[in-house]
Amino acid sequence: MNVCGFEANTIGETIILWLGSVSTIGEIAALGIVEVKNLTYSYPNASKPAIEDISLSINPGEFILLTGPSGCGKTTFCRALNGLIPKFYNGTLSGSVHIAGLDVAEHSTMELARHIGLIFQNPDNQIFALTVEKDIAFGLENLGVPKAEMYKEIDWAAEVTGIESLRLRATHELSGGQKQRLTIASVLAMHPSIIVMDEPTSFLDPVGAEHIFEVLNRLNKEHGMTIIIIEHRIDIAAKYVDRIIVFDKGRVRSDGKPGLILAKEDTRLLGVGIPRILELAKRFNDHEAMFNELPLTSDQFYDNIKVYLKEQEFNDRKSRLPPDMLDLVGEHHHSPLIQAKGIVFDYPGNVHALRNVDLTINQGDYVAIMGENGAGKTTLVKHFNGLLRPKEGSVFLDGEDISKQSVAQLARRVGLVFQNPDDQLFEETVEKEIAFALRNFGVKEEGVEKRVTWALNLLDLDQYRESSPFTLSGGERKRVALASVLAWDPEVLVLDEPTIGQDYGQKERLRHFLNQLRTQGKTVVIVTHDVEFVAESQPHIVLMSQGNVMAEGSTKSIMNQTELLARCSVAQPEITRLFNYLEPYGLPKDVVDVDEAHQLLKRKIEEAEK
Q: Which of 155, 342, 361, 466 would give a disulfide with 338, using CB separation of 3.0 to 4.6 Å?
């Protein structure tokens, strides 16, 4: 590998990220720090352009959110900003991109990297040093930063991303969320003038994601750093950014201030997630009179709505909708299906992942396992199908100890979709990927074709039937991995972070499908950081922290235990946070979804007006 010349294509995409340096804003004040004109690009053998006729100007110090449905061209656009396209990807490119006054087509990736740093969607594509500390140091070493200064930058980057305790940890031992924090720290350590991030918080717990946005906001507001971020977690991102650019089918569909863009019906129809608080505000027919500006946070909503309510004396009987108006799902009382008894598991290096975990999942349960990064969630579910075996304790499936069963035997009954789809995909085409397990299980060809077609249609993948899964976007690859498991109809479905990389439309489709499985008596387990998805699905929640199960219960009961949630790095849904503020007005605190929130508030406002 020639680091300076970037001769190794597979490594080059990673290396150029680490060679950034500080560039003064004043140098490019006359023009935008990013200038894109009539940019069109097609991947090799593609039937249509990935991005088409894009023209954008981004000013120094802007904080910009790029969003849109999965596969709309956001990642391709970001690759064009730092020269990965066309220098590391073949294909057809037209138009121009200027970064800090430099024409991307005429300057080397090393020159461009001194102004712009890119954080990939998949952290595994960006990590290659043996330890966390060495990975953060790599870019600084290439810049020739003196050792004393280098350690200061490593200290700072590790602290702001919350990985100080992991500095000596081997990178292959990190969880998905910890890896994502590491990639962010490695770029932040070099203080480039422009940072481009492709879903940087997708693997992070809600508190960690909020913390990263606070760090980015400080860098943007206090140090003038230009930040361009791709993100599907609109509820978090919208309150920090100055501007939202919506992509669809390779084109820019809308561009403007967050509140205005997100309030447009066209934005929702494209599959862009609308903050639940803004959605709640829009449900009121006279919302334009009630709100000076449509709110994006619970605080903003509360400040506007409280003038329409009357405070009440404390009363244990809060206003509540009649039971038949609530879409609540009762607890299951079926027989135990999966039982973990006294599970202890350690990774090499004396890393205690699970500590005497006891958990019972009943037949027909819908369970969400939540908690901080590194809490042991993924480690736990990998025990369900034998991918990991406990150091101590036992796992039972339908009353039978699985210790004597092979992974192949267990996989027929327990289907696991990995957090990172690239750990699961290997076939040449999407169709072959989905058909692989079916053929292994001895399904006849007629049945294989039927199940493959069903899975492709269910997850909106039919157009990619003959495509390589590795040419698809991160969100699309995630759906392929999910389809490959759903196709064989396992008795237990375990999904590790199923909403990562998915636009709002795909999340809604997934939510309805999981609820359908629930009504059919299937057992579903998800590992997730997506509190809004959980709030609308309302599964049984298992909270984990530091290898222990801290609590479990219904969505409503768990989401109101503020201190416990904080210990497990799980944030309350914005709707629940709002109703905590509204308790003095006689409203219940345990509200988690928009429908119930709207009906309760509407009735309370009508009562106050009488």
A: 361
**How many C-alpha atoms does 349 have within 13 Å on its Cβ side?**
11
Mean pLDDT by 10 residues, the chain (610 residues): 32 36 42 92 90 96 93 92 88 94 86 84 86 93 89 92 92 85 89 90 83 88 92 89 95 94 89 91 85 90 90 54 42 78 92 94 96 93 96 96 92 91 90 93 92 92 92 85 91 92 84 88 94 94 96 95 93 94 93 94 86
Same-domain status, 288 and 420: no
- What is the Cα 123 distance to its own chain's centre? 12
Domain span holding position 296? 276-327+590-609
Residue 391 lies in a domain: no
**510 and 469 in a common domain:** yes
Closest Cα to residue 60, out of 24, 95, 103, 110? 24
Record the tokens describing residue 602, joined without a space: 């509407």
Contact, 227 vs 195, CB < 8 A? yes
Q: What is the DSSP string of 449-517?
A: HHHHHHHHHHTT-GGGTTS-GGGS-HHHHHHHHHHHHHTT--SEEEEESTTTT--HHHHHHHHHHHHHH
Instruction: Quote the number of domains for the chain.
Output: 3
